[in-house]
């Protein structure tokens, strides 16, 4: 359903992207599209992590990294002048998305490490595990609470 929503936002972007209405700005429509695509890919990663689907470690890594990229693009828009009105209404969005960015980047590194282990590349495996750990630790360094 998230991919269908993303398609609807793409249609709006393609057909009404030049609207002077603030809610229909191309940046906001693309932000919503990326949010929906991120959520769609997140569902795939979560199903894979639960073992509900058979996906190779490298593919889980790639999908998880794409989730993080989609969410980071949403954070970028929210932190810009374009996203300021949304942040006032939804103060928790930025922090939630930053946490998800770090989490899915860590998942990507962890499954990249698993893939390296399958190939007996133990040096790379350890390096990716360390990157995953650093990403998880970075979540604890995010500011606490919701900004006013």
Textual characterization of the structure:
- The protein has 6 helices and no strands.
- About 75% of the residues lie in helices and about 0% in strands.
- It is globular.
- It starts with a helix and ends in a 9-residue tail after the last helix.
- The model has no long low-confidence stretch (mean pLDDT about 90).
- The longest helix is centred in the last third of the chain and has 27 residues, at about 90-120.
Mean pLDDT: 88
Structural class: mainly alpha
User: Total strand count, please?
Assistant: 0
Order of helix and strand elements from N to C terminus: HHHHHH
**In one word, what is the shape?**
globular
Largest sheet: none
The number of helical elements comes to 6
Poorly predicted tracts of residues: none
Key structural traits:
148 residues; mainly alpha; 6 helices
Condensed summary:
The protein is mainly α. It has 6 helices and no strands.
In terms of topology, how is this protein built?
Layout: H1 2-16, H2 26-49, H3 57-78, H4 84-89, H5 92-118, H6 122-139
Helix pairs in contact: 1-2, 2-3, 3-5, 5-6
